[in-house]
């Protein structure tokens, strides 16, 4: 038998699968389980009929380019539509600052490959998105966490962390943030903080990676101004902005984009050539047509209402089931509710019991680069039905009660 470990590159030795993807495997094995684990949009929201019409027309054979290789940058009309979307979001850009990526996940991978050497430090929020952790870890970067407040990343802690890491002789290259309805906490970074982050990045000569897949999915209490990208006020070219059609049209198309300083985007384009030559041409055209025909514009208000209702059902169910023993910041948009369980509970260890009881979530530790998050869980309210949300929360509550009883039982016997 050959031991294939001997053939692995140093970076491959360090690669770790995503905890959330692993949950997906558990799920696939059982249809009985109610899943609050992966942050999937609900397929019942997808514009199936419009996609079918668009695809039928595209596949008529009239235009051979539809199924041909295309430019690495992306399909030109789609790039132009994205420039218009960025403008609506308050950020002026141009096609030379844009690159279509195969999901924002590829955007994160390109950023990591182009900007990080082994040992370089990326500052991330505590907690942060697991897919970003994976991308940065793959290039052997070191991640250092910065705590969050109610209105997002703690700026004093950010600068103190920067100073500490730099004093240790390590090089801080990037700050990675998800300012709108963060995965996993659902938090928003306050407007004033967004401006101050830019000043900070200028002062410390750091680039900001702004990952923004959820901004369109804001609920009633949120104004358009509150979800203004940091990139919109980026006068000096400090921000690399990532966004995606995964949560607004469908993740299966894998169409997303980077908007950043032109010299960097040129490098991302070269790096992308080695990954996939180009993002799928049919996918890009379907997305372009969905924008041009107004499908996207009609979807967004529906999605806001749809996910807000699900959020409400989950919040009600949790309040009824747990009273004040479990707490969470009420998500004002996005897909996730970030819950703090009683401190005796280890949410990772509790997963086995949760699966037995027919419910699943993501344990908090997956989102922390410093090992915290023991009694935290991320609950996605996006893809389960309302009935499933109610039933799933009841199962979760049973699970937590049983877990606490099991933890306390040996102690009381002793
Ligand atoms: N960033 C964040 C914060 C996300 O939550 C996700 C999806 N879970 C992604 C990036 C990746 O999205 P996609 O690759 O589908 O565009």
Q: Can you characterise this structure?
A:
It is a single chain. This protein is α/β, with parallel strands linked by helices and 414 residues long. The chain contains 13 helices and 13 strands. It has helices at residues 10-14, 19-29, 48-58, 76-88, 103-115, 130-138, 155-167, 191-204, 262-276, 281-292, 295-322, 351-356, 386-413, and strands at 34-35, 98-102, 121-126, 142-149, 152-153, 172-177, 207-211, 239-244, 255-259, 336-340, 359-360, 362-363, 376-380. The strands form three sheets. An eight-stranded mixed beta sheet has the order 2-9-8-7-6-3-4-5, sandwiched between helices. Strand 4 (142-149) and strand 5 form a beta hairpin. Helix 5 runs parallel beside helix 6, helix 5 (103-115) packs across helix 9 (262-276) and helix 11 packs parallel to helix 13. The longest helix is centred in the C-terminal third of the chain and has 28 residues, at 295-322. It is globular and about 70 Å long. The N and C termini lie far apart (50 Å). The model has no long low-confidence stretch (mean pLDDT 95). Bound molecules: 4'-deoxy-4'-aminopyridoxal-5'-phosphate. 4'-deoxy-4'-aminopyridoxal-5'-phosphate binds next to helix 5.
